[in-house]
Write a structure and sequence with these properties.
heterotrimer; A alpha+beta; B alpha+beta; C alpha+beta; A: OB fold (Dihydrolipoamide Acetyltransferase, E2P); five-stranded mixed β-barrel; 4 helices; 15 strands; B: Ribosomal Protein S5, domain 2; five-stranded mixed β-sheet; RNA-binding (chain A)
Chain lengths: 233, 227, 320
C-alpha cells in the first residue's frame, strides 16, 4: 500500500499499529514514537497479522544492508580475499576468497584489480565493515552472482535502481523487444549492461540513464527513438 | 545591480557529482550547498559512535578568514543536534557551502549564516542523511531608530543602519517549531529585545519553512516521476 | 585529485574500444569540444561556465592596494583556484593535491603570465597605490576539463568586470562610487583560450578482463581516420572525468584569436610527435576562435540587457 503524501523528516505518522516492523527511513528512540528521518513516501506492507512500514526515499549514496544485491569493483587483493568498492569515496567491503561457487583451498578465484563483481551483502553492521559474497551460501551455487565480464556500467539513483530490480519497468521489456541484452542491477545504483555490440550497449546505457527523470510512458518512447533502426532479434 | 527576492527561491539536486545539493536565494543573498555522505572517513577524523561532520563555508571572494570559521562553527551548532549522527557511525558527511552573493558587507554574518543553515538543511534531506527534523533559520536586525524597530530578513541597507543583528534557528517537527537551536546576536541589545527577536523569528521561520517544505515535496515527486 | 576515480576494467575496455571507433559516451566526435554554456550574473565580474557536467563560477573583485616594490607601475592580479569537495567528493577540502597544483599553474600561465590583463593600466599612483584584481574560481561540479573551463570563466569574468573610477586630487586618491561615475572596464589585451588534448594508446587496450596486461605491444592498429602522426595514439579533445582517469598522456595548448600560442604544456606521459602538436595547435585555434566569439556575443547580450532602460549606452571606454 502506498500513500501519495510526501513525508519529511520529523513529521508525525498516522497510527502505525503495534505489530509493525520499522523499515528504512524510520527511527524510533527508546520510549518514543517512531519518526521519519528521510524525505519520501510512506509505504506499508501487510503480511498476515504483522506488517511493515518504511519510507521510500531516494538518494545517491549507498549504505550496505544485508541481502542487497550489489555491483562493485575489486580495488585490492588481500591474503584472504578481495576489497570491493561499491561506490566512489565509500568504504570498501570485504569479499572472502571462498565466497564463490566451487571455490576451495585448491581452486581460488583469481580476480584482477579492476574486475567487476555481482554479489550479495552478507554482513552489514554499522560498527564493523561490511562483507559480501558472490554465490548463494545456502546452496553453494553461483545463483547468477560472480564476475561480470565485458559490458558497461551506468550509475543511477538508488530508488530508481530498486524500482528496476524489484518492480521491473516497461523500459526494460521495450529494450528487450528490440535487441537482446544482458543486465545486472545492483542496489548500490550500479547497472551493468551487455549486448552484442558496443553501439547497442551505449544506446541501452543512454536509455536507462535518461529514463531516470522520465515517466514510464516517456521512457518507452525514448527507447523506440534511440534504438529504432536496430534489428529485431 | 542586484536582484532582490522577497520570497525564498530554493531548488535541490542541482549538482550532479555530489549526493545532495541545494541552492538558496533569499533577499540579496544566494548560496549553494553540497552534501556528500555517509562515506569513508579518514582514520584521524573517525568517531567510533557517530558520523563525522565536515563543514566548509567558502566566501564569495578571497580566501576563507575567521569570519567563515565563525559561520562554520555556528552552522555546526545548528545542525549537529538535528542530524542523527549515531545511525551511521565511523563515516563522513561533507557539507560545503559556497556563498554566491553575500547580500551584506563583511562586518555582518547574519544573512549568510541563515542562508547557510537553510541550504544545508535542504541539501542534507536531498542527500538522504538521517535527520530528526528540519532546521530553519532567519535573520533579524534591530534598527538604530527611536523605536528600535525589528526587521525580519533585513536588507543590506537595513543592516548598515542597525544596532544589532541576530540569527535564530528553530527545529521544525511536524510543521511546528519544536526547539530553539541557535540564537546568535551581534551588537548592543537589551534582554527584552532578545525575547522579542525570538518571538518575531517564529514568523520569519514560518515563511522559510513553507518554502522549504514546498521545495522538498517537489523534490520527492521529481525523484519518483517514474512511479 | 587526491583520490582516484575507480574505473572497472569493463568500463575501461568499453570506453577505449568506443574511442577506437571514434565514438564517445556522450555522443560527441573525438575532436569535438563540449558546448560552452556561459552566463553572466547580476553583479559585474560574475561569470558562470558550464561544460557538460563541469560547472564553475568565477568572481572578479577589485580593491586598492600597494604595488610590489620591484614593479611600481603595475597593479596586481591574483587567481585563486581551490577545488573543494563540492566539485566531487574525490577532492579534499583545504588541501590541494599535485594535480590541482598543476592545474593552478596552467591557468596562471595561460592568463596572468600571458599578459591577458594589462597590469600597467591598474596603476593609480606609481609605487604608492594600485588596483588589486582577484579572480576567485568556485568549482561547483567536476566532469573533466577544469583547466579549459576555468580559463574561459576567468577571462570572461575579467571582461565583464568594471572597476570603480579613480581620480587624483593633490595627494589624495578618490575612488568614485558606482553611482557617482560610470565604472571602468579592465584593459584586456587578448583573449587566451585553453584547449586540452588527451592521448590514448590503443594497443594498451586490454583484450579481456581476465588478463589486463595481455596487450601485444606494437600491434599497430590504426586509429580510424584520426590524423595523428603517431599511428597508435588516439587524440581526444576536452575529455570527461572518466576519460581523464583513463588517458595516457595530455597536452594543453593556450592560444588566442591572433594565432599567438601562449603556452604548450605537456606534463609527463607518452611522447608526442612534433607534427601532432602542430595538428593540435590548428584544432585549438579553431576552437579558440569559436569560444572567443561566444564570449563576445554573450558580453554584448549582457550589455544590452543592462542598458535596456537607457537611451544612450553608458560607457567609460575611451577611444584609443
Amino acid at each position: 500500500m502506498t500513500e501519495s503524501t510526501v513525508i519529511l523528516p520529523g513529521d508525525t505518522l498516522i497510527d502505525l499499529g503495534d505489530a509493525t516492523t520499522l523499515g528504512p527511513g524510520l527511527f524510533q528512540a527508546p520510549l518514543s514514537k517512531p519518526v521519519p528521518v528521510k524525505a519520501g513516501y510512506l509505504m506499508r506492507k501487510e503480511k498476515g497479522h504483522t506488517g511493515s512500514v518504511y519510507i521510500e526515499s531516494n538518494s545517491r549514496r549507498y549504505v550496505p544492508s544485508v541481502k542487497d544485491h550489489v555491483i562493485g569493483v575489486v580495488v585490492g587483493r588481500q591474503t584472504e580475499g578481495f576489497r570491493v568498492l561499491l561506490q566512489d569515496a565509500s568504504p570498501s567491503v570485504r569479499l572472502g576468497q571462498f565466497a564463490f561457487e566451487n571455490a576451495n583451498k585448491k581452486n581460488r578465484p583469481n580476480l584482477p584489480v579492476g574486475a567487476l563483481v555481482y554479489g550479495r551483502i552478507t554482513m552489514a553492521d554499522k560498527d564493523i565493515e561490511a562483507e559480501m559474497e558472490c554465490y548463494d551460501s545456502n546452496t553453494g551455487k553461483a545463483a547468477g552472482f560472480g564476475e561480470l565480464k565485458g559490458g558497461y556500467v551506468v550509475q543511477v539513483s538508488l530508488a530508481y535502481a530498486r524500482k528496476l530490480l524489484f518492480e521491473g519497468s516497461p523500459l526494460l521489456s521495450a529494450i528487450g523487444d528490440i535487441v537482446p541484452f544482458e543486465i545486472a542491477i545492483g542496489m548500490n545504483g550500479k547497472i551493468w549492461i551487455d549486448a552484442p555490440d558496443n553501439t547497442t550497449i551505449f544506446k541501452i546505457a543512454q536509455c536507462i540513464e535518461k529514463s531516470e527523470t522520465l515517466s514510464e510512458h516517456e521512457s518507452v518512447d525514448l527507447v523506440s527513438k534511440l534504438l529504432s533502426g536496430k534489428k529485431t532479434k | 545591480m542586484t536582484v532582490t527576492s522577497t520570497k525564498p527561491i530554493a531548488s535541490t539536486g542541482i549538482l550532479p557529482s555530489v549526493d545532495g545539493s541545494a541552492e538558496w536565494n533569499y533577499g540579496q543573498t544566494k548560496v549553494i550547498c553540497s552534501v556528500s555522505g555517509p562515506m569513508e572517513v579518514k582514520i584521524r577524523d573517525e568517531i567510533p559512535n557517530a558520523t563525522t561532520l565536515e563543514l566548509v563555508v567558502r566566501p564569495v571572494a578571497g580566501l576563507s578568514t575567521t569570519r567563515e570559521t565563525l559561520i562554520e562553527d555556528r552552522l555546526y551548532c545548528a545542525l549537529s543536534s538535528v542530524v542523527l549522527r549515531h545511525i551511521h557511525p565511523r563515516s563522513l558527511v561533507q557539507i560545503v557551502v559556497q556563498v554566491m552573493e553575500a547580500g551584506e558587507s563583511s562586518k555582518f554574518v547574519c544573512r549568510e549564516l541563515a542562508a547557510s543553515i537553510n541550504s544545508s538543511n535542504l541539501a542534507l534531506v536531498d542527500a538522504g542523511v538521517p535527520l530528526q527534523g528540519l532546521v530553519v533559520a532567519t535573520s533579524i536586525a534591530i534598527l538604530n531608530d527611536d523605536k528600535h524597530s525589528l526587521i525580519v530578513e533585513p536588507s543590506h541597507q537595513d543592516l548598515e543602519a542597525s544596532v544589532s543583528s541576530h540569527v535564530v534557528a528553530y527545529e521544525f517537527v511536524d510543521k511546528e517549531p519544536q526547539r530553539l537551536l541557535l540564537c546568535e546576536s551581534t551588537g548592543q541589545f537589551s534582554e527584552e529585545e532578545v525575547y522579542e527577536v525570538l518571538e518575531r523569528a517564529l514568523e520569519g521561520c514560518n515563511t522559510v519553512y513553507q518554502s522549504v517544505r514546498g521545495t522538498l515535496e517537489q523534490k520527492v515527486s521529481k525523484d519518483f516521476v517514474w512511479r | 585529485m587526491p583520490k582516484r576515480k575507480d574505473i572497472s576494467l569493463n568500463e575501461r575496455q568499453f570506453i577505449l574500444s568506443l574511442l577506437k571507433d571514434s565514438q564517445r559516451l556522450d555522443g560527441r566526435a573525438i575532436d569535438q569540444f563540449r558546448k560552452v554554456d556561459l552566463k553572466f550574473g547580476d553583479s559585474l565580474g560574475h561569470a558562470e561556465v558550464q561544460l557538460g557536467k563541469t560547472r564553475l563560477v568565477v568572481r572578479v573583485s577589485a580593491e586598492v592596494s600597494k604595488p610590489y616594490e620591484d614593479r611600481p607601475y603595475e597593479g596586481t592580479f591574483i587567481i585563486t583556484t581551490d577545488v573543494s569537495s563540492m566539485a566531487s567528493p574525490l577532492f579534499e577540502n583545504n588541501r590541494s593535491s599535485d594535480d590541482e597544483m598543476l592545474m593552478t599553474r596552467l591557468i596562471e600561465k595561460a592568463i596572468r603570465r600571458s599578459n591577458a590583463l594589462d597590469l600597467e593600466s591598474l596603476c593609480i599612483v606609481a609605487g604608492k597605490s594600485c588596483w588589486m584584481i582577484r579572480a576567485d574560481v568556485h568549482y561547483l561540479s567536476y566532469d573533466g576539463g577544469l583547466v579549459d573551463a576555468s580559463c574561459i570563466g576567468v577571462i570572461a569574468a575579467l571582461m565583464h568586470f568594471r572597476r570603480p573610477d579613480t581620480s587624483i586630487d593633490g595627494d589624495q586618491t578618490i575612488i568614485h562610487s558606482v553611482e557617482e561615475r560610470v565604472p571602468v572596464p579592465l584593459s584586456i589585451l587578448h583573449v587566451p583560450i585553453c584547449v586540452t588534448f588527451s592521448f590514448f594508446k590503443v594497443d594498451e587496450v586490454p583484450s579481456s578482463t581476465e588478463n589486463p596486461v595481455a596487450a601485444i605491444p606494437g600491434s599497430g592498429q590504426s586509429a580510424n581516420g584520426v590524423p595523428t602522426a603517431d599511428d597508435s595514439a588516439i587524440l581526444v579533445i576536452d575529455a570527461t572525468a572518466q576519460e581523464e582517469a583513463l588517458r595516457h598522456s595530455e597536452l594543453t595548448i593556450t592560444i588566442n584569436k591572433n594565432r599567438d600560442i601562449c603556452q604548450i604544456a605537456k606534463p609527463g606521459g607518452y611522447s608526442v610527435e612534433a607534427l601532432t602538436i602542430l595538428e593540435c595547435a590548428n584544432k585549438a585555434y579553431k576552437i579558440a576562435t569559436n569560444i572567443t566569439d561566444l564570449i563576445y556575443r554573450r558580453l554584448k547580450e549582457d550589455e544590452s540587457k543592462r542598458n535596456a532602460g537607457n537611451l544612450v549606452p553608458l560607457t567609460a571606454e575611451n577611444e584609443r
